[in-house]
Amino acid sequence: MTDSTYARQQLDQLRQLMELHAAGHDHFLAQSDNIGTPAVFGGQVLGQSLQAAQLTVEADRAVHSLHAYFLLPGEHAPIDYEVTRVRDGRSFSMRRVVARQGDNIIFEMNASFQTASDGVEHQAAMPQVAGPEGLQSEHALRQAIIPHLPPYFHDKTLAPRGLEYRPVEPVDLMNPPKREGQIALWVRAMDTLPDDAALHRALLAYASDHGLLLAAIAPHGLSLFRGEVRMASLDHAMWFHRDFRLDDWLLYVFDSPSASGARGLCQGRFFTRDGKLVASVMQEGMVRPWVRKA
After folding, report:
1. In terms of CB atoms within 10 Å, which end of the chain has fewer, N or C?
2. Is the pTM above the cut of 0.90?
3. In the chain, what are the helix, strand and coil shares in percent, each to the nearest 5?
4. DSSP state, residue 261
5. How far apart are CA 239 and CA 282, in angstroms?
């Protein structure tokens, strides 16, 4: 299989994952993908929930924010999404999404949508980092450690499907050093996406959950792949500021301003190559180092 064939195949599978099937009034059913995480990847549920909400909103109203809670670990199995039309005003719409597997509610999200409007503008500056050209892909870095992992992981992607990440400063995933400050990744879709702004936003929500929580353990030099820490997303908030395309490179920079009480708070920003801030992210997650018994 050529690299281009593999890329197209991976992205097609991701697009299929974001295709929701109507299952009654404002109910949608979606499939799940097992990328190697113990529970269903949180970014998948974020992206699919946003897709469900977008299917109930007029096309001229784009999502500008979402606030979500991960309530239970999801299984690698189909998920039912129920949308409640909370409000439709002159400029804003609000949707609530509940994700279920069987009798369990595993996830809840509120999302707000707005018609295009003009107003004052400013933004934070993009950090000056190396561009994506010549950087090694995260996929290659993770493939190198697969022989050191249990057999279960050997056929898993260990990262969101259909997207390419390139860390600006790669680290040894098995023996990471203690590091402070921001982590920077370049990310884009592996191949061309259709001109569907709603799909690009859903896929950015999907992409935003990858790597973010690792910022909470970076200052402590802990390795997730050596089983030194247990981590799980608890909540996730995202704000969409400006238009973008995910089949062009975006810079994802993130850090962790605080960790305490077995929780880590992480924040991130997405920039286009020309420095435009297109989205911001906040997430808190469970961070519990494994205590080895003597």
Report:
1. C
2. yes
3. 20, 35, 45
4. T
5. 9
Is the confidence at residue 294, as pLDDT, over 60? no
Residue 234: CB atoms within 10 Å: 18
Is the sign of the CA dihedral 113, 116, 122, 126 positive or negative?
positive
Q: CB burial class (10 A; 0-12, 13-18, 19+) of residue 274? A: exposed
> pLDDT digits over 53-69, tens only?
999 999 999 999 999 99
Rounded distance, CA 270 to CA 169, Å? 17
Specify whether the CB–CB gap between 219 and 177 falls below 8 A: no
Task: Write out the catalytic residue numbers.
Answer: 209, 233, 283
What token pair was written down for 175?
């023996």
**Rounded Cα gap, residues 87 and 259, in angstroms:** 36
Cα angle value 188/192/197 (rounded, 5°): 80
Binned at pLDDT 50, 70 and 90, residue 154 comes out as low
pLDDT interval class at 38 (50, 70, 90): confident
Confidence of residue 226 (pLDDT cuts 50, 70, 90): confident
Calpha distance 21→30 (Å, rounded): 7
What one-letter code names the amino acid at 292? R
Q: What is the sign, positive or negative, of the torsion defined by CA atoms of 22, 24, 26, 31?
A: negative
Question: Which two structure tokens, joined as six digits, stand for 78?
Answer: 């189909």
In the numeric block, which tokens belong to residue 187? 């990310």
Least Cα distance to 252 among 273, 230, 236 occurs for: 273
